[in-house]
Input
Amino acid sequence: MDQKQRVAEAIAKALPDMSIEDILNKIERPKDTKNGDYAFPTFFLAKTLHKAPQMIATELVEKIDQAGFEKVVVAGPYINFYQDKAQVGADIIKAILTDPEGYGKRDLGKGSNVTIDYSSPNIAKPMGMGHLRSTMIGEAVARILEKENYNLIRIDYLGDWGTQFGKLMAAYQMWGSEEEVKKDPIETLLKYYVRINNEADEHPEYTDLGREWFAKLEHGDKEAWRLWHWFREISIERFQKVYDMLDVHFDSFNGEAFSAQKMDDPIDLLKDKGLLKLSRGAQIVDLDAYNLTPPLIIKSNGTTTYITRDLATALYRKRMFGHSKSLYVVGAEQENYYKQLKAVLKEMGFTWWDQLEHISFGLMNLNGKKMSTRKGNVVNLEDVLNDSISLARKQIAEKNPDLKNADEVAKQVGVGAVIFHDLKNDRRNAVNFKLEDVVKFEGETGPYVQYARARAESILRKGGIRDFSDVDLTVLGDDAWELLRFLSQYADTVERAAVNYDPSVIAKYALELSKKFNQYYAHTRILEENAEQLARLALVQAVSHILKDALAMLDIKAPDEM
Ligand code: ARG
Output
C-alpha cells in the first residue's frame, strides 16, 4: 500500500470527523528525515478544538494506532511518523519488481481521450531547432499522460496552407526545375521562396502572382493541387526522417489544408450567433470583454485566416475524438493567440472551451544567439542530431573501446542527450544549446542518467541473478534507505509531471535517482557476499527499472551497456 495512505488511515482512526482526502492533503514530508518520513501538523485544528496545537498533538498521538510504524512521536505542533524501514523498503522493491511499468501509475486519465498537437512544422521549409522543442515536449507530455492512462491522439498539424504556398508555386513556375527539387527538395523549395520574397519589392507583380496561385489552389485548380501534393509529400518524407531518429510517431498529419475544407462550420455558427462584426471591411470577433485584441476571421478580400482554420480544427477534433483535453504544444510567443482561440470558442457557446490548453515553452538559443527562420539563422535539426551522435561515438570509443554495438549505442546516447537537454528545465524557460555541454557523461545530462542505469545493469550481470521472488528484502541496511525513500516518491512525481504537463519534473527525478544510486554504489559494496547481497541486487534491479521507465517517458532509450 501507498505509505502516505497508511499514515492517513492511522490518523483517520484518531480523527473520525476528517475525511481521508482532507488528511492526505495535510500530511507533509519533512525535508530532514530526522523528523520522520511523514508529518501531520495540528495548527489548523486549534480553532475548532480551542486548544494549543501542541496539546492537540499530544492527545492525538495517544489515539493513533502505531502498528506498522517504527515510531510515532510528538514534536511541538507536529506528529511525526517514522516508517518501519525494513518492511517499507521491502514493499517498495517488491512493488517495482512485480510490475515495473505499473509502478508509479495513478490512473488519472481513466482511459479518456486527449488530443495533442505538436511539432506541426510548416511544409516546404526545413524543420529547425525551434521545432525540436515542440516535438520533444509534446512527445514527452504524451508519454507521461499515457503512463497515467490517458489515451493520446498525436497530431502533426502541418502548416500546409496559406498565401505563402501561392508564392512558392509562382516562384516554382518562374524558376523551378523538377530535377533540382528532387535532388534536394526542402532546401530547393526554400531557395525559391526566399528568392520571390526578396525580389517582391522590386517586382510587385510577384505578390499578385502569388495571390493568383493561392486562389487557384482554393478553387481546386489541377496544376495548383498537383504542386501542393508534391511539395507536401516531399516535406513529410523529410520530416519523417527526423521523427524516426527521435522515435516520434503521429496518428495524423491533418494540417491547415485539411481544416481549410471545414471552415463553413465555425463561420456559419459565428454568423448565427451574431458574433461577426464588420471592421474596415474585415470580419472580426469582439473580445473586449476578455481584454484581448479582436481576431480577424474573414479578411476584407474574403479569404479566411489562420485562426478560422484553427476554429474548424477545434470543432472537428471535439466531434471526432470527444476529448477530455486538447493540448497545443507551441512557443510562448503565441500565448495571446491561444487566449483568443479559447475566448472565441467560449463566445460560440462551447462549454468545452477550457479543455484546450496551450503548453507553452521558451525559445531555444544556439550558443547564446537567437535562432530565426526568416533571417536564415536556421539550424537543421538533423545535422544537430548527427553531430551529437558523432560526439557520443567519440566518447564511447574513449571510455569503452570494446563495446559491441557501439554505433547503435552512440545513436541512443547522442539523440537522448539532445532530448534530455531540451526537457530538463521548466519548459517556459529559454534553453541555450551548446553541443559540448549536452553530450557529457558528467553533470546534469542525459548520458549521465543513461550511464547510471548501464552501471546498474553491469552490476546485475556480474551478480548473475534476475529473479528475486524468493529473496528476503527486509534485510537491507540503513544505507539503502535514502534510495528507497526516493523510489517511494515516484508516483507523486509522475502525477506532478502529468498535472503540470512538465517533463522537467521527470528529468530532475531521473537525475536525482542517478545521483543517489551513484552515492549508494560508492559507499556500499553491493556485490560483497553476505546475507544482504541478494537484497542489494534486488534494489539495484528496482533502480534500473525506474531509471529506464523515467527515460522512456522522456522518449530516451536506456542502453544496457555504454
Ligand atoms: N505551424 C505552426 C508553427 O510552426 C504551429 C501550429 C500549432 N498548431 C495549431 N493548431 N495552431 O508555428
Remarks:
- The pocket of arginine is lined by residues 117, 120-122, 157, 159, 310, 313, 328, 330 (CB under 6 Å).
- The mean pLDDT is 94.
